[in-house]
Amino acid sequence: MPVRVRPLVLALMLLSSPAACDGKDKVTMPPLTPEPRESRLAGTPTAASSRTLAARLALYRYLRGIAAGNVKACAFLTAGYERRVFGGPGRCRSGLAQARARLRPQDITALRGVTVPVCETAPDGACTVRFENLRWKGEPARQGGLLAASFTLRKTGAYWRIAA
User: Fold this and answer.
1) pTM of the entire structure?
2) Beta bridge partners of 77
3) What integer is the mean pLDDT of 74-92?
4) For residue 147, how far is the Cα from the chain centroid?
5) Which terminus of the chain has a smaller tally of CB atoms within 10 A, N or C?
6) Distance (Å, rounded) from C-alpha 152 to C-alpha 154?
7) What is the edge-to-edge ordering of all strands in the sheet holding 120-121?
């Protein structure tokens, strides 16, 4: 009967075995370094960018969701925006694949590397991101269709959503 050993237990057994130590006081592992900063929202953090972080993150997830063809991106849209872009509330899930198919392959590739560095706040609390303010790893995507000239985000309950 084979004995099953959990990976963590096995790792601890190997690390604590006499064969794992050679008796020398040398460091065999490189020093720990901090993880690189999250690049998805790019830019230098400021007080204003900290206040808009959640809104920018919602747009970032929507754009990356489009790139992946993931219908979960539809969760970041208000009913009004869905009506304007997909023809009716609740139609994003069924229409995302068709709308995404109208994008050029270069646009899909560009969306995989997009970041949302800035957001302009309005007195009513809305946050607007202009297409030209998005940052791209390589060649930018072409505006049109799913890629609007600007995206206005509003807080709906606890979440930020793209509004019409």
Assistant:
1) 0.71
2) 162
3) 94
4) 16
5) N
6) 7
7) 120-121, 127-130, 150-156, 159-163
